[in-house]
Amino acid sequence: MRFMVSCAAAALMASGLSYAEETEAEEEAEARQETVIVTGTPQIFGATKFEIPLLETPRSLSIITEDDFRDFGALAFSNTLNYTAGVTSNAFGASTRGDFTAIRGLDAPQYLDNAQVLFGFYNNARTEIYTLEQVEVLKGPASVLYGQAAPGGIVSAISKIAGPDKISREVTISAGSHDRYQAGLDAGFDLTGDGTWTARIVGLYRDADTEIDFVDDNSFVIAPSITYTGDRTTLSALFNYTETDGDINAQFLPLAATACGSSDVTIDPDFCGTTYTQSVDNSRYVGDPNFNRYDTEATTFTLLGTHELNDVITLEGTARYRDNEAEYDQVWISFLGDGNPRILPDGTAIGRTWYSAPAGSTQLALDARLRAKFDTGVIKHEVLGGVNYQDVETNINSALLYAQPTTFNIFNPVYDGSEIPTAATFDAARSLDEDETVATDIYLTDHMTIGNLVVNAGVRFSSVESEDAANDQSDEETPISIGALYKTDFGLNPYISYSESFRATVGTDVNTGGPLKPRKGEQTEVGFKYQPPGSNSYLIVAYFDLEENNLVEFVAGGQTQPGLTIEAEGFEVEALVELGDFAFDFDFRNQDAVEVDENGTELPRPSEPDTQFSLWGTWEPQTGQLAGFRA
After folding, report:
1. If you ran DSSP here, which 8-state letter would residue 216 be given?
2. Distance of alpha carbon 206 from the chain centroid
3. Greater model confidence, 578 or 42
4. The domain over range 4-251+286-619 is classified in CATH as 3.30.565.10
5. Residue extents of the structural domains in the chain
6. What pTM, to 2 d.p., does this model score?
């Protein structure tokens, strides 16, 4: 268990902290109300792209605020999702390489300020949670609003950005286990005195070890922003530079070295036999500190804006340019196939695999939207129409030296760098892969209110051009979504929705000789949302049935063909219960997620639990000498 201590640097910003103390209780109360009722700042960022109360949205949506980050003691982006129904975070344990998240059994793309932020693998910097206002999880297919996406859902984060309501100053200093030291700065300024021009700067510096020997988790972030707020126009510019310096904490330790000699683990005697009698702690490092590294650098420019053309129509837009670079070098004890030991009984590795893969990616994304609010008879409309363009290039120059001879002993390791292959050896084995994907989309959604009935219907036309060294293909899809919710006077809102997804797959179908078909998904969801009148407490129950087909499987010779289907069915429960000064957040999921091959054989989705449960409680006195205290 990690232990974290935080303190405010009062001497540096006394006036700002004094102001924060005076308004802390009020702001936190408002934040709690916001969590229940709204979806963040939806005109610019929100995952649904609509200014719709959470309990009136005909689909599942979860919101995790900055206060929640702090309450949870979250250290990384994936930690913010640990208490969200339907979400599997950290499925492979703690990771310094990335935030691996699944929603309803399928991998989830990550968005930042309304645009996708991660592409490919291990070619970018992770998002630091200190730079975020909140995280939203939109469950189910989201292709109508976002284009290519998995049918399980998306994770959408919102950056801290300047604004007239963000004039506060904070300095944080924290220390924790594994020699973790971090300092953060979040300061907002009113440049004109009337809130017309505001600025904000967010910064972070971290020097940290991890639970794995020799593996660091160091980071530096600077994220200034400036905002113009006029009578009808809001325009924000945000810059973010993130740099990390670390290593990979996934060491792929042999089971024979971690379990066979341990009295704390029960394992099949046929696997261990009588030969493996020693064991190592999970902190054991099997790399080489003279070689291993995972260093990343990301530079991002973002523009966000809204302009009210008149009382009916508003123009909105998002533009981003992002450049990522990563240096990835790792060595591990080789995997030698089922039934083959990876180490000798004395702990000597049978072979070590060396991997070097400098990688990068660039992104240009544009999203222009028109929003119109009007009535046609008894129907109140909020119509959103948009054009989205995105050009993403990825590259990786990898070399894999498999099962190289070694004297490395896991029980008595020596890290002297003597076995590191030469640069010439790596260069001779390198393979450069470069990919480019250009997507151009048009979408239209109408959110209609007819008395107590809410109907949301949308359609998107997507054109995707994908190119790599061996393929040049085009895909076009037209996903749809429709949902309905009925608002009752006593707070119970039943709903039903149907939505579709797609994502292009680049490659050749060995059966037809043509390009692989896009992966296509669909989901039906029914449920209800209940909030007692006059209360912040709420209950959300959802049943979902989703499917994604045309997944690729590999056949003889490394060729590919569509043949796999993912099916997931289950139900989720989310509840917030407030009892006086106490609040309890309850989340539960039960699902059956399987992969089905062309013969109908079903296999469980890897690293996906059937049942999840979490409970989180907070105590926040509203009166007396402890008012403002939170635990």
Report:
1. B
2. 21
3. 578
4. no
5. 4-251+286-619
6. 0.88
